[in-house]
Amino acid sequence: MKINQYGLKRVSLAEAKKELSQIGFLAEKESYESKTLWFNFLQKSFLTVRDQSGFINKLGNFLISETMDAAVFYQSTAPLTNEIFYTMALQLLEFEPMIDFAPEKVLADAKAIGVPLCEGDFTQSDTIIEAWYLLLTSHTKNGLNYLDKLASEGYYENKVIEKPLFFNGKAQAVFDTSRLIREVVYVEAPLDTDRDGKRDLLKLEILRPIETEEEVQVPTLFTASPYSQGVNGPAGEERTYDVNVPLERKEPNNTTYEEIKYQPQTIELPAEREVKGQATHATETFSRENSYSLNDFFLARGFAVVYGAGIGTRDSDGIQTCGSTEQTTAMVAYIEWLAGNRRAFTNRTDNIEIAAWWSNGKVAMTGKSYLGTLATACATRQVAGLETIISEAAISDWYQYYRDNGLVIAPGGFPGEDADVLAIETFSKMRNAGDYLHSKEFFLNYLQRMVELQDRKTGNYNTFWDERNYLPAIKDIKCDVVMVHGLNDWNVKPRQVADLWDALQAIPVAKKLILHQGQHIYINNMPSLDFQDMMNLWLSHKLYGLDNGAKDILPDILYQKNTETTSWSTLTNWGSEQKQTYYLGNDQLVQEQNSGTVTFNDQLPAVQYEKYTKNIALWEKELKESGAMDVHRYLAKTEKLPAEVFLNGRPTVKVKVASNVDLGMLSFELIDFGRAKRLKPVPDVLALHALPLGRNWREDNLVEFKFGAEDEYKLISRGHINLQNRSNPWKVDDLKADEFVEIEVALQPTLYHLPAGHQIGLAVYGTDFGMTVRGNQAIEYTLDLAESSLELPITEE
Fold this sequence. Notes:
The two termini are 23 Å apart. The protein is globular. The strands form eight sheets. It has an eleven-stranded mixed β-sheet. By secondary structure, it is of the alpha+beta class. It has three domains: 13-164, no CATH class; 177-247 and 255-469 and 477-560, Rossmann fold; 579-793, Galactose-binding domain-like (Jelly Rolls, Sandwich). The mean pLDDT is 97. The longest helix is centred in the middle third of the chain and has 22 residues, at 433-454. The protein has 22 helices and 31 strands. Its main location: cytoplasm. The active site is at 369 (charge relay system), 489 (charge relay system), 520 (charge relay system). GO terms for molecular function: aminopeptidase activity; dipeptidyl-peptidase activity; serine-type peptidase activity.
């Protein structure tokens, strides 16, 4: 196993001494020879024993060489060496001798594991101080750095510690999570989405440290989650669309972007509520929030955490609108209250105002998927108090989530979902039947209007989708941005974060990008990466104002390699200017242009079609293999690669194609062919509830990406286009039967290593059983090979 630490801050000896004194490891005037000092540090870290005999007994459990245990060494006159120090250190970090490392080559093994090593003379006390400081910041085999592990075991108990406390530039787990204050307030938003003549009140669940009652002001992590008050699964399922329908021809038009551009409308709002009193404490609480474990980690470290579901959710006013400007405004209202710039009340009826007096006015947004999407949306509003967002697997353009180049496209795993489906699914107000009664008719009418505006009939980009496209507003972002995304996420596809990353390049804010090899997942519980430490360094700087060098220490682009386990690396750019072009041959991708044509038919035999509609995984498999799909798709491969190839960016396919009818669509897959073990896109659980997030506090599972069984191929990227939207997604081009047209499609961006001996494959086909409509129409596609090519972005590491 390799530990990858990017949140580690290197400090001077003087700073190390100062910080070790602050946490009780080093007395200011303490002076010992190196071996004595080391054992003093060890004794303070052995938290389960309180006397000398117990300490010596515990030392006997540790090796310090191939032939000696630490208790024998303690009673010997032998000098302390770096080999002895790190043999012990690796065991303290939960690595096992003879399993994870060999004592006879401990320094080489420690370096290979990724443990930061201290150079110097280990017979000198200053070297021991530097080495111990580094050890405390080193990650254990099981997910926490060593000091966090000690804190979870009670290191800070009965110590007089200033709160908040920072070590190595990061907030420490010194806050009492056993006495968290849980309260509910209702923020008054500048909205009336249910048109009841009153401004919408929005429920906010707050968890804050008990220490805030003692005049400690803390910053806030805000997760905007339309799911946090529950979902209406059956209602969403009932509304899900049938995708076994034909692709329809569209009437050509000359629509321009200006014609469909979203223009905000001014709506006259009801007056603000009349305040009838003031309160310092809420009158409503809750028992258990729908939490995110990264937030739980920071609750122990001096941050408040709040969860807001927004309009149209349980115990809040309004209706659900799925990505609209009103939904963003609702989430911004929460931030404004936390920053002291908006009103909230203790309940929905008494008009007793309450302020966030415990807040230092600084807010970060966290969360994945819809949650991260709303963080991106709020960042475009320049709202005071929002210092940074950590958006994970987030949408930057809703059109590219439910549509693609003029096609209705499902997010991976959810055929038939659309904006209106998600709206009713997250309209958790329905679960309060009495409350729902008052807005039911209005909401269902709004939902029907959504059906018309989202336009599944054409799949074109229009005003509805332009309102839900945040990319034009990225220029307005003023807060710093952290983005996390899976390179194998076919729900919120990699283009969503790539487009956001590209748009941010011209904006003078700090931006950090972390790309992993997973699907639609969180990565804060993987022991191979110090994600929690990185975010701690970042948030301690952004929300507490700590001058810790976070912007310089954290890499701009960090990505996980696909050919190794627990292997991460950095990049300066996502997207290579260097291109490698392959031309399409009959069944090969070659480096010289070909002539001739190839034809495939999108219509499957009825039995095969029915089988694929019920088993998308089988369709994916047979698409890439010889046999069942041979005449229903084009598939070509390169020769075996003579050397490794690193794809960095957006592959592009250019084809000249004709349809035998006056409509059509093409889908594309870029494939790695070659027998190998590959990383599974969903991490394995290493241990349940094994990652403590604080002292006697919540825990998370430990997970890690592992290799699966050997297989023959791996999907790298994909793309789709309606042949009638070859100019852009809002303009409909004409298409005549048997007339060749030229199209160009940028596939999903990637970072992917292709080992030597593998082959690059390209599949071109019509129906994508996982994402497009599935009409099983008698459409025959012909590719003109002379005008068809694949362009790959290549980087040499």
